[in-house]
Amino acid sequence: xxxxxxxxxxxxxxxxxxxxxxxxxxxxxxxxxxxxxxxxxxxxxxxxxxxxxxxxxxxxxxxxxxxxxxxxxxxxxxxxxxxxxxxxxxxxxxxxxxxxxxxxxxxxxxxxxxxxxxxxxxxxxxxxxxxxxxxxxxxxxxxxxxxxxxxxxxxxxxxxxxxxxxxxxxxxxxxxxxxxxxxxxxxxxxxxxxxxxxxxxxxxxxxxxxxxxxxxxxxxxxxxxxxxxxxxxxxxxxxxxxxxxxxxxxxxxxxxxxxxxxxxxxxxxxxxxxxxxxxxxxxxxxxxxxxxxxxxxx
Length: 298
Description:
By secondary structure, the protein is α/β, with parallel strands linked by helices. Helices cover about 45% and strands about 25% of the residues.
């Protein structure tokens, strides 16, 4: 099999866009030129890679089989070029990291800040997402490192270690909320809440806490995917929220929110650092690890 980087890039862009026209614009080729690149690639492989339809281009079975290998090959080519460029002093690479919100805005941001101060030629790409999305991004080669709040499916990923950092989930409310500072569980059972969706890990954990305390499921008045939205709604209403304390530091400091004293609903959370199992870890990611505190490694 003889594939060059141009063919790999053409194949991947057509697969991602599903359109020769859109793909041609992205790879800076005319549509006929891009079509010829794909045809030569198919001839060389002895397989049709796309079904050409009126609505666009869809992968054949052979194309589907090739796709993950093409992504791996392109990623390794880019990593190799970055390593060689670094030796010549042309550039230092890009740190591509994903993390859950609480740790992205604290530990990851602090580590990136120190790294970029010492290595100003480095750049960074940061993705904030939930655990499952981070696992997909890692396996899909959109990021090189992922910091999660729970264990990932081990298929395709490898645990680097446990972060030397924890945070605490607790109950918060607007400063003007009439609840006492130490509400009883019976009082909390009558309150409305702003929460993430039912499938989100924090919601599942909170529902389990309520069940363990013999309380009914929380009365969720507002569901939100954004942490900022949850805080803003709670700060401007009598709804309660259950979030990691570091995310509310500014609101606690300026007096718009307060933490309720409910030890039975507080939970400490640890964080795990993962990499992809296949391929080499890029130089920039290895440099980041020098600045990222780990408590333990497997």
